[in-house]
Amino acid sequence: MTLEEFTTECRTELQTRRDGEGIYKSVNGERLPISDSYFEQMVIDCANSKWNDQQFGYIEARQKAYGSTGSQLDMQYWDGVNSTTLWADHIAKVKSDNPKPA
Predict the structure, then answer these.
(1) CA distance 30 to 57
(2) How many Å apart are CA 86 and CA 57, to the nearest integer?
């Protein structure tokens, strides 16, 4: 999705909440309705967050899935001893399961 599409999606989601249960901010323990400019900033922040997750979320997902450096080195060692490709297969699967966005 584009940033503009995320902005439209966030505006719809947030407006639904604003019209329903309401969106408030807390000032000195008091619940106050938000201003239109505060709402617009919420829309911008939401859209930017979703866009960043789309564009860069794969990096964190890959880092978690790769495993530790020690585990990867161990795989490489045993691949060399056993003439296998477990490490390369593991890396290829992580990349295919967490593709870089186009």
Answers:
(1) 36
(2) 25
**HEC string of 18-52?**
HHCCCCEEEECCEEEECCHHHHHHHHHHHHHHHHH
Tell me which residue has tokens 């999705």: 1
Tell me: the pLDDT tens digits for 29-87? 999 999 999 999 999 999 999 999 999 999 999 999 999 999 999 999 999 999 999 99
- φ, ψ (nearest 5 deg) of residue 26: -105, 125
DSSP string over 15-26: HHHHHTT--EEE
Beta bridge partner(s), residue 30: 27
User: Domain map of the chain by residue range?
Assistant: 1-59, 67-102
Any idea what DSSP says for residue 100? Answer: P
pTM recorded for the entire structure: 0.68
Q: What is the distance, to the nearest Å, from the Cα of residue 5 to the centroid of all Cα atoms in its chain?
A: 16
